[in-house]
Amino acid sequence: MFDASERLAYERELVAARHRAEESEARARVLAETLQRSFLPPDIVAVPGLDIGGAYRPAGDGSEVGGDFYDVFRTGPQTCGIVLGDVCGKGASAAVVTALARYTVRAEALHVPSPSAVLEGLHRALLTYYPQTFLTALYLVLDQVPEGHRLTMATGGHPLPLCRRADGSTETLGRPGSFLGMEETASVSQSTAVLSPGDIVVLYTDGVTEAHQGDEFFEETGIAEVLTASAGLTAQAVADAVVAAALAFQHRPARDDIAVVVVRKPPSDP
């Protein structure tokens, strides 16, 4: 009788421990999701003459906060800013740096004239507050010009955007630059391009292009194939399609966080 009672108590404790572990895991997942949502814009701002969409997918089962983020915000009455970044590491430490990066870019964008100056400000903030970490980032400003929308872009070590023109050709925009943080100086590259009616550009983190099965990687060719098959879709639908294609290519949960922003210049302005 004593042995049976001991065994029953032990089994009950095992069940209780499993329930506690499941509850703890659920709380961690909710916390991770809440933190990650705070690094993404609740809504994409409406920009006259443009269609903008964004998508995000955390690595694995989504229970850990990653370092990928994006933001879309107004920089003036007629201009819009977009930032996409990838912080080194994961978890709480990456979350803190991600928050710093997103809001530093917003603050700098109100006070300095060029995208490269914004990223240089972010670099200084990283050196000041988190000198042992680094990130890659891409920041651009969109403003309307007679030919369409001008895209003025600065890059700090980040994958370059892929643009599909209205005639079906594809090209990579910009120049890479160096990562931000850790080193005393950073090389930030700035360039311009014009989006004409019918053009579409995809901004992404390396979780997209580095998705792989065996030795084969998704790369820019995978994004280009999605763009070819997505003619006529909204920017949001294209962003979702890029994420879905990268995940399908791996045949398993994402190995890295994925963030995508798509900017589409409709064939004719509304």
What do you see in this structure?
This protein has 270 residues and is an alpha+beta fold. It has helices at 2-38, 91-109, 115-129, 206-209, 219-229, 235-250; strands at residues 51-57, 68-76, 79-87, 135-145, 148-156, 162-164, 170-172, 189-195, 200-204, 212-213, 216-217, 258-264. The protein is globular. The mean pLDDT is 88.
Notable characteristics:
single chain, 270 residues, alpha+beta, Phosphatase 2c, domain 1, 2 domains, five-stranded antiparallel β-sheet, 38% helix
Helical stretch tally: 6
Basic shape? globular
Average pLDDT for all residues: 88
The low-confidence parts are: none
What structural category characterises the helix and strand content?
A: alpha+beta
CATH topology-level name of the largest domain: Phosphatase 2c, domain 1
Beta-strand proportion: 25-35%
CATH architecture of the largest domain: 4-Layer Sandwich
The Cα radius of gyration reads: 22 Å
Helix content: 25-40%
**Largest beta-sheet characterization:** 5 strands, antiparallel
Count of β-strands: 12
For the record, the count of structural domains works out to 2
Gap between N and C termini: 81 Å
User: Going by CATH, what is the homologous superfamily of the largest domain?
Assistant: PPM-type phosphatase domain
Question: Main sheet: which strands, in order across?
Answer: 1-12-9-6-7
CATH class identity of the largest domain: Alpha Beta
Question: Helices and strands, in N-to-C order?
Answer: HEEEHHEEEEEEHEEHHE
